# Entry
Amino acid sequence: MAEFVVHTALGSPFGRAVLATLLEKGAPYTLVPVAPGAWKVEPHLSLHPFGRVPVLEHSGIVLYETQAILRYLDRVLPSPLLTPSDPRTIARMDQVMGICDWYLFQGVVNVIGFQRLVRPHLTKLPPDEAAIAQAMPRAHAVLRVLDRILGEQQHLVGDRVTLADLHLAPHLAFLARTPEWPKLITPTPGLAGWLDRMNDRESFRSTVRERLAETSGTP
# Structure
């Protein structure tokens, strides 16, 4: 099979989901680090017209949008299968992935995570504390919903890892690096245990930003 090439910023939760999925599949890949801001200019814009990450290149196809990439990988690399067989369980998986994109990332991770972890690093400006405070009720609400979906299961939609787990976990792991995390996760111990289990997987240990920077030679 042709090589998989992943273009992403090393700290991107979306990019990490793609890399972790490839590792779960046992598929080798080449990582092309995209520096901050470089996704808004050429040559990256030729790969992703909306100037974001990640982008997957494989066997003549250039694919963006993380959910599309993950589903593509699960089809071309069918073992282990990361999509359930039951239509209702597939629907729940799709629902969780949508929650991740539209309610967890939008308005939570891209506010709290950005203000705490990205803005100070890129701009040397202090976090916007008002923006963080405004995002906290939404963050609590989203985590409660996810904890309710998880219930007593080991994984988000059943007893084995699916694309829902691989898509969501990098976002919560990113949020866990902020000082707001203990206050956010304490009311949802089930979700905390699930994230611990995901972080223990080799696919996640190998895709932390520091490990990727070391293996790619990127500062």
Q: What stands out?
A: The CA atoms of residues 150 and 156 lie 5 Å apart.
